[in-house]
Structure formats: structure tokens, C-alpha cells
Amino acid sequence: MYTIKEDKMDEWLDGWTRSVLPLRRKFGFRVEGAWIIRDENRFIWVLSYDGPDGFEARDAAYYDSPDRKSMKPDPAPLIEKAESWFVTAAIEPPRQN
């Protein structure tokens, strides 16, 4: 969950959608969902990765990549506060028939 700087949510969403989202997908991550609470300047997303190298290793590779280091637009400077958690499912998702 990110708290975005005051009056910067639209700019954040533009940079995240155009830069972060496609690069995360290129690295094999899945965005399970993304939401905003506009009146609190909050951006919440659920990011997953189930590859053989594990989330932490793949996340480090993402941040160390030349594409991430040269990202334009880079929305990271618009983050005022970042919080993250690793979570596990409390219930099994319904099966697809």
C-alpha cells in the first residue's frame, strides 16, 4: 500500500500503468488487483509471483534491471509512504469448472 503525495494520484496512476505494470508483467509478476482510495491518497495493489526463484529474488532482479533503473516515467518519487506485507490465503479460491 502506498500513500501518494497530495494531488499526485493521477500522475502516479499514469506512471504506474505505463511503466511499472508492464515491466512487472515482463518479469513474471501478476497483479491480482489494484485500487485507490482517492480521498486518502492511497494506492493498494496485490502483486504475486510463483516462479522457481521465489518472490524476493525476482523482486530484487526487477529492481536491479536496467529497465527499472531507467524507467520513464518513474512514479516512485510520488510515493510519500510505502507499506508491504506477505500474505497467505485464508480460504481456497473457487475451482474453475
Supply database-style keywords.
97 residues, alpha+beta, Alpha-Beta Plaits, 33% helix
Mean pLDDT: 95
Which oligomeric form is depicted? Answer: single chain
Which parts are unreliable, with pLDDT below 50 for 5 consecutive residues or more? Answer: none
Order of helices and strands: EHEEHHE
- Write down how many β-strands occur, each being a DSSP E stretch of 2 or more residues: 4
State the CATH architecture: 2-Layer Sandwich
CATH class (first level) name: Alpha Beta
How does the overall form come out from the CA principal axes? globular
Our measurement of the CA-to-CA distance between the termini, rounded to an integer number of angstroms, reads 33 Å
Under CATH, the topology can be stated as Alpha-Beta Plaits
